[in-house]
Structure to design on (324 residues):
């Protein structure tokens, strides 16, 4: 069966992927978007499908569910003329043009199922989780991996909260949560913080934060509906403890979904795709990256959407040079 050739292919279905699809479809570039089926562990729509209430996306003053936002973006992509395939691209060859893509289940075939003149990678990232007992029960019912996304929801307001991590991200999240929490507890596995000295000093001096060194969470306890307590263990003595808390926030890092392009695209030391600053351009001409797969700093729906717009415009500019 002959490969299907596309002008521009988008891999990923979060805010970055759908924004790119909307812009390219309106520009008559006939994009195809592979939204994946449980790609990177998520349903089509990406990380936002696991988020409950979103209150900080412009245009929705009363907020909306993460899944609802992604449904609306998908609907708009289709309305604008984008083609969407609920399939996962599991193999990608960027060594020659057109670029070669294989759909899941076809990886062993010599010929690709699809080819593309340009590719936009919007495969996202996933927060590292600890998979503690009780975590699945209370995920998004007290447990989160994004303070900025979820910290302001009513469940956490004026309640004690726990942050796990010892780096700059953990410090930032803990300080951010003091705007809403009655008190914030930070659990640090070692006896020192990995955060920069400036950030560490800020954390340790904050009156609404208690840092628990040599401490890790071991279990999430609740009433069946929401989280109420975090069981802890002292890493030196082995002694168990507990902290009454309505929220547990993981700040132990993210894993970018870059397995498709390892060894092909330039990645940074933590595995994120490198792009030319201020653009979506990668080290391979005609390949663009947008969203959390290349952004380890902001990781917000709105910044992902903005980078999707950038990728679409960069791809359109790239493809225009081949038009008659």
């Amino acid at each position: 069966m002959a490969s299907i050739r596309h002008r521009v292919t988008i891999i990923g279905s979060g805010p970055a992927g759908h924004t790119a699809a909307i812009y390219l479809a309106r520009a008559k570039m006939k994009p195809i978007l592979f939204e994946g089926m449980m790609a990177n562990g998520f349903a089509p729509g990406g990380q936002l499908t696991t988020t409950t209430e979103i209150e900080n996306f412009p245009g929705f003053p009363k907020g909306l569910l993460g899944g609802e936002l992604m449904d609306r973006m998908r609907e708009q992509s289709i309305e604008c003329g984008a083609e969407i395939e609920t399939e996962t691209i599991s193999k990608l060859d960027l060594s020659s043009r057109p670029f070669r893509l294989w759909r899941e289940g076809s990886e062993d075939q010599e010929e690709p199922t699809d080819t593309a003149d340009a590719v936009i990678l919007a495969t996202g990232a996933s927060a590292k989780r600890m998979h503690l007992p009780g975590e699945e029960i209370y995920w998004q019912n007290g447990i989160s991996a994004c303070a900025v996304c979820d910290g302001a929801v009513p469940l956490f307001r004026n309640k004690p909260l726990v942050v796990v991590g010892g780096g700059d991200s953990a410090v930032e999240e803990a300080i951010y949560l003091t705007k809403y929490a009655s008190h914030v507890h930070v659990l640090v596995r070692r006896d020192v913080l990995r955060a920069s000295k400036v950030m560490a000093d800020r954390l340790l001096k904050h009156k609404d934060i208690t840092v628990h060194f040599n401490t890790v969470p071991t279990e999430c306890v609740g009433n069946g509906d929401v989280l109420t307590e975090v069981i802890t263990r002292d890493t030196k003595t082995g002694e168990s403890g507990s902290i009454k808390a309505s929220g547990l926030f993981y700040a132990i890092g993210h894993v970018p979904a870059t397995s498709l392009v390892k060894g092909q695209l330039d990645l940074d030391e933590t595995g994120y795709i490198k792009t030319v600053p201020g653009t979506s351009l990668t080290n391979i001409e005609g390949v663009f990256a947008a969203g959390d797969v290349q952004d380890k700093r902001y990781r917000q729906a709105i910044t992902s959407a903005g980078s999707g717009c950038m990728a679409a415009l960069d791809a359109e500019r790239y493809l225009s040079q081949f038009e008659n």
Remarks:
- Residues 301-320 form the longest helix (20 residues).
